[in-house]
Design goal:
Blueprint lengths: L1 E2 L22 E4 L4 E7 L13 H13 L8 E11 L8 E12 L2 E10 L4 E12 L1 H9 L14
Length: 157
């Protein structure tokens, strides 16, 4: 199943309503329970000359791992993201991004993602802890987005 940017979603990574966004399209592999994307990132996303910015690499990994929530039809937010930058990721190169779930424990979701070259070389790897949030909590967090968070609030999603 193809996961194309929705025209009313303003997400920087996957939304269609953000004129300056990345407009990423992913593929949902129900049999393997994996989310995949094939991308060729232009030079506007570079950090060092000729290479994709580390923040963009983290964005790709976070986004592909977040989309794994589609299999359980839940909503989960990133609580912790760790990225291993294994090799430089060149701009303009064909890339494969893939994410999957490692473990579920209550509301906690542990996931992994990789960015690979077209030859299959792992260029970057991410691991993340996501926390499932209900629709009411999601809407409440959106309403209170401008409120100053108290220490430790994030874990209360």
């Amino acid at each position: 199943m193809l996961l194309e940017p929705k025209p009313d979603n303003a997400c920087f990574a996957c939304g269609g309503a953000n004129a300056r966004g990345m407009h990423l399209t992913f593929e949902q592999d129900d049999a393997a329970k994996r989310i995949r994307g094939s991308f060729r990132l232009p030079s506007e996303y570079q950090g060092g000359a000729g290479f994709v910015h580390g923040g963009i690499i983290a964005t790709l990994l976070d986004e592909v791992m977040a989309k794994v929530s589609r299999f359980a039809k839940d909503h989960a937010v990133t609580a912790k993201l760790t990225v291993e930058y294994l090799k430089p990721v060149p701009v303009g190169a064909d890339l494969i991004v893939e994410g999957w779930e490692l473990e579920r424990n209550g509301r906690d979701r542990f996931r992994q993602g990789e960015i690979r070259s077209s030859a299959g070389v792992v260029l970057a790897r991410g691991r993340a802890h996501f926390v499932e949030i209900g629709q009411e909590r999601l809407q409440a967090s959106i309403r209170n987005a401008n409120a100053e968070p108290a220490a430790g609030d994030f874990g209360k999603f």
